[in-house]
Amino acid sequence: MDAPRNIDSGGRRSLPVGMRIDSWRASDGWALRCFDWPAPAGGAARGSLLFQSGRGDFIEKYLQAIGHWHDRGWAVTGFDWRGQGGSGRFLADPAVGHAESFDRWVEDLDGFVAAWLAGTPGPHVLVGHSMGGHLLLRLLAERHPQIDAAVLLAPMLGYAAGPLPGWAVRWIAGAACRLGLAGRAAWTERLGDGDGPSHRQRNLTHDLAQYADELWWRDRHPELALGAPSWGWLRAGAESMAALAAPGTLEGVATPTLILATPTDRLVDARAIARAAARMPDAELRWFPAAAHELLRERDDIRRAALGMIDAFLAEHAR
């Protein structure tokens, strides 16, 4: 294991000392790759924070943000979603990210959170990005865990499909699945080389160094990398988002929730995020007009502003 360092000055490409990479068995025996980083010794423990990233992500992409919370006294944990990162694959082809339903992910999250709540000191905080934010919100809406506060970063509550309405994406994905294409990639993903702008990089972050970090991890640990979503994944995501949009679902989320998003997101629908926040009884929505999708992997000014808002929110609601 590489020696740790100040994460702001280059430690994004090495696991920090004290962070444990392990596995956790879901209720059906599936092994999920997880991490645990206990609160720093010698200081006042702040509480326990569980972070879940988005589709196609893996633990190492978010070492910088995880390090920020750890430096502030939080014990931080989380896991790679089933079917991506180090938690196995649904299909033999690792270039395709597939799912038949998002329900299994909610079950995995529910089991992991229950064990985490029982075995760690409070206050307890959930933080989720994109698909992770979507699944955390489903957990809060459907299972009502005893969480002190939640933070959703660019949560996937609708697809950003350009001129197409959200229902059209669901219809097209459903039609592709009926034609037997459920396991096929919905598009070809082009990563770029990290040295210049690419379509994917512009959608995710304006920071070329942050984007290059992801490619560095993918190059050295190809087992963690995942390609484009399948048509089945798109259909499953649309069905899951429709379930969250049903009347009465979000109105029952009592957990204080901070939502950070960008109105120009090219991957998730900002209008759906605004509608969801308006329905939640204790939600605060803050916009980052200059950001791309990955707020915690953006330029320093954007990333630090987002982390500062999260710190302030947790200081008020997770004591």
Automatic annotation (TrEMBL):
Pfam family, one: Hydrolase_4
Any one GO molecular function term: hydrolase activity
Serine aminopeptidase S33 domain mapped to chain residues: 44-300
UniProt keyword terms in alphabetical order: Hydrolase
Domain of life: Bacteria
Keyword Chloroplast among UniProt keywords: no
Database matches in PANTHER family: PHOSPHOLIPASE-RELATED (PTHR11614)
Name of the featured protein: Alpha/beta hydrolase
Organism encoding this protein: Edaphosphingomonas fennica
